[in-house]
Model the fold of this input.
Amino acid sequence: MSELEARVLPEATLARLTQYLRALNALEAQGLERTSSGVLAKEAGVNPSILRKDLSWLGSYGTRGVGYVVRELAEHISRTLGLNQDWKVAILGAGNLGRALSGYAGFTSRGFNVKAILDVDPALIGEPVGALRVEPISELATVVAREEINIAVLAVPGDAAQDLVDSLADLSVRSVLSFAPKPLKVPTGMNLRRVDLSTELQILAYLAVQG
Done:
């Protein structure tokens, strides 16, 4: 592994790389083969100097006066983000949120394949959710092994989330996206991202009042 590949990128840079990738894909869809840092920054909604600094982490992929090759830069960002790998997702929780997430087209288009949806409610077991059927959470180990799950999404109440994180850790699932409305303890080696919708709404309410 090279020094560049081994480098850990700042979290803010990682978040912006996803914006650049989305912008590059949009530019490619418009038929553009090259773009400048100014155009790409505008499409991504960031300052051009920040964009150039972020891309400097990836090495030299632009040419002064010429700009960036859209497809080449998009592919490099995809490799950096690990999107060239096969990501197989299990959604834990088949309520309204879990069902909505399972049908989100953005997962598949970005290389994340939802392979299973599970729930604890006996009334939901066997129910169709898109091309899937709800499976019992008691079969989590079987599902993880069968589908080679490497990412789990928690769409469950807060009280159930910690036990599921512990179970996923035992099953060597190291990447978890949690919508559970509470902090969770994770073991060393597990990466957990938390999306707290109520917190985001509260921040919007504060900003609206201040504005």
The two ends are 48 Å apart (CA to CA). The longest helix spans residues 11-29. The chain has two domains: 3-80, 87-199. DSSP finds ten helices and eleven strands in the chain.
